[in-house]
Amino acid sequence: MWLYYFAIFLVVISNVFYHISQKSTPVAAHPILSLTVTYLTAAAFTLILLPFFPLQEGLAASLKKLNWTCLSLGIAIVGLELGFLLAYRAGWNISVAQFFSTVIITLVLIPVGLLFFQEKMTLINGLGILLCLGGFMLINIK
Fold it and tell me: Which segments cross the bilayer (predicted)?
């Protein structure tokens, strides 16, 4: 149960620092160079973390268990980070951009979860979706 809550805590804290960092990236900084330094930092940090998550079968056997998802995730992360960097440079507020994108992502992922991952939806879940849509509309009133 500890991991269940710690994982979400880590996501929330990391997301807050992520958006503060993205919004604070100097406008004069080249976006792709900025992301390159970001990924080099991330690569170094993941290598530092590796001893805390030791490989069970060695490097070669562990690499064989990887599939297309690593490449897909790498491409998605670049799109995600470049997208937010450009959104903030275009004038999006930090308080709105994340919410706006999260609502849309959630609406896209609902059918994905239902169709491809056999997830279930309850009436309460449906009401939650309607509340999100209501918030989505209210936050965009100028």
Answer: 6-21, 33-54, 66-87, 99-117, 123-141
pTM of the model: 0.84
Q: Vertex 37, ends 31 and 39: CA angle to 5°?
A: 100
Range of the domain at 10: 2-139
CA distances from 141 to 7, 24, 82 (A): 34, 26, 27
Residues 98, 101: Cα–Cα separation, whole Å: 5
Structure confidence at residue 53 (pLDDT): 94
Cβ neighbours of 38 (radius 10 Å):
17
When divided into structural domains, the chain yields a total of: 1
Could you give the CA distance from residue 32 to residue 39 in angstroms, rounded to a whole number?
Answer: 10
Quick: pLDDT tens for 20-70.
Answer: 999 999 999 999 999 999 999 999 999 999 999 999 999 999 999 999 999
Question: Residue 113: what are its φ and ψ, rounded to 5°?
Answer: -60, -40
Distance from C-alpha of 113 to C-alpha of 105, rounded to nearest angstrom: 12
